[in-house]
Specification:
It is built from 16 helices and 13 strands. Strand 11 (about 275-280), helix 13 (about 280-290) and strand 12 (about 295) form a beta-alpha-beta unit. Helices cover about 45% and strands about 15% of the residues. The chain has helices spanning about 10-25, 45-50, 70-85, 100-110, 130-140, 150-155, 170-180, 185-190, 205-210, 210-225, 235-245, 265-275, 280-290, 305-310, 320-335, 350-360; strands at about 1-5, 30-35, 60, 90-95, 115, 145, 165, 200, 230-235, 255-260, 275-280, 295, 315. It starts with a strand and ends in a 5-residue tail after the last helix. It has about 375 residues and is α/β, with parallel strands linked by helices. The strands form 2 sheets. A 7-stranded parallel β-sheet has the order 3-2-1-4-5-6-7, with helices on both faces. Strands 10-9-8-11-12-13 form a 6-stranded parallel β-sheet, with helices on both faces. Bound molecules: uridine-diphosphate-N-acetylglucosamine (UD1) and uridine-5'-diphosphate. Uridine-5'-diphosphate binds near residues 14 and 264.
């Protein structure tokens, strides 16, 4: 079985690390890793390959940043060439980025069956580029590996045939278990932080960074929280660029600690020891739950609805700084004990299950 895996953005390196490890252990299976180059800074790409022991990609397409059409189009052209050269039996894509969309389109046009890991998630907001990417990717796929019951239901509602949908759990949960035990003991010390004495934040969504007014509100809210409790925020390069453009980068309290992006092992350590996590990231919302840390999601909606229903995740639409401050402080003060169903995201075997299903005659 020859499989091409297309990855390009930070969360995809983490997800692929899990499945790739299983594929490498499978006799007769050859995985050809293709890195589109969507993320390219050392701390947005290389660090994950080193820490998570991902093999060097066989193809690095070097696409880089750009407008959606230009970036996706360049990827499509380059991935098509790789597929024509390597002639794989299957192609794996992850999540909902432009790299996901380009991989799905290139393979589907060449009649190469597509396996979509993290299928079925929906925000029902077509203004999000990710929503468009995931809807198209799902409908071009042969194997839809859904992480949650809610994802399965979304696919059923869209008329995806039952025999294409596989509830396998979440590969990010596998990653949290497998790599989570390797976290660094010195992460907090290096940053002068004490366990459960800080808020961890991440912001990178287009809707929170692309208009100066929204960006000012989001960071104004986080800055107000930092007056009460230290806020640590590893800055996505998109957000750093937006803050620089808006002349905001140097305008905050030193208690709002703006860091460079972190490697996964440092990040997990900061997640585990945070009092509360405030984020607009998909992956970080779930990791908060994996480590049983309350989360505030600074978005209008989330794809991970089960966490909101259980009360682990508080959805706070970032309409202004006061709302953000009030939402995060309310979460900090909320001492309610919540239930944490053990298998909400599977049993930590999603990578193994996906690998098995891809080999099964049913899926051939
Ligand atoms: C992308 C995904 C998003 C995902 C996120 C994970 C799409 C449409 N969006 O968003 O779903 O949540 O990755 O982090 O695919 N940049 C750098 N260095 C890098 C990478 C990016 O400086 O290594 C800067 C560039 O200015 C670039 C901007 O970040 O224009 C945005 O990068 P891009 O990959 O287009 O989208 P993300 O915001 O990273
Ligand atoms: N992450 C990381 N370093 C950081 C910020 C995030 O390793 O500085 C990890 C995080 O732990 C999670 C993943 O990156 O595993 C989430 O990626 P991101 O927030 O960029 O994208 P999303 O999940 O929203 O698509």
């Amino acid at each position: 079985m020859k499989i091409v895996t297309v990855i390009g953005a930070r969360p995809q390196f983490i997800k692929a690390a899990v499945v790739s490890r299983w594929l490498r252990q499978t006799p007769g299976c050859k995985e050809i890793l293709v890195h589109t180059g969507q993320h390219y800074d050392e701390n947005m790409s290389d660090v994950f390959f080193q820490e998570l022991e991902i093999p060097t990609p066989a193809y690095h397409l070097g696409i880089g940043s750009g407008a959606h059409g230009a970036q996706t189009g360049r990827m499509l052209e380059a991935i098509e060439k790789v597929l024509l050269e390597t002639k794989p039996d299957k192609l794996i894509i992850y999540g909902d980025t432009n790299s996901t969309l380009a991989g799905a389109l290139a393979a589907a046009k060449l009649h190469i069956p597509v396996a979509h890991v993290e299928a079925g998630l929906r925000s029902f907001n077509r203004k999000m580029p990710e929503e468009i990417n995931r809807v198209v990717a799902d409908h071009l796929s042969t194997w839809l590996f859904a992480p949650t019951e809610a994802a399965v239901e979304n696919l059923r509602h869209e008329g995806v045939p039952e025999d294409k949908i596989f509830l396998v759990g979440d590969v990010m949960y596998d990653a949290a278990i497998y790599f989570g035990s390797r976290t660094r003991a010195d992460t907090l010390g290096k940053l002068g932080l004490e366990s459960k004495q800080y808020v961890l934040a991440t912001i990178h969504r287009a809707e929170n960074t692309d208009t100066a007014a929204r960006l000012r509100d989001v960071f104004g809210g986080l800055n107000a929280i930092a007056e009460e409790v230290p806020v640590v925020l590893p800055l996505h390069p998109r957000t750093r660029a937006a803050l620089t453009r808006a002349n905001l980068l140097d305008s905050y309290s030193p208690n709002l600690r703006l860091l460079d992006p972190l490697g996964y092992l440092d990040m997990v350590m900061l997640e585990k020891h945070a009092s509360v996590i405030a984020t607009d990231s998909g992956g970080v919302q779930k990791e908060a739950f994996f480590h049983r840390v309350p989360c505030v999601t600074l978005r209008d909606e989330t794809e991970w609805v089960e966490l909101v229903e259980l009360g682990w995740n508080r959805l706070v639409p970032p309409i202004d700084a006061d709302t953000i401050e009030a939402g995060v402080l309310a979460s900090l003060r909320d001492k309610k004990i919540r239930s944490a169903p053990a298998h909400l995201y599977g049993g930590g075997q999603a990578g193994e299950t996906i690998t098995r299903l891809l080999q099964s005659p049913l899926a051939a």
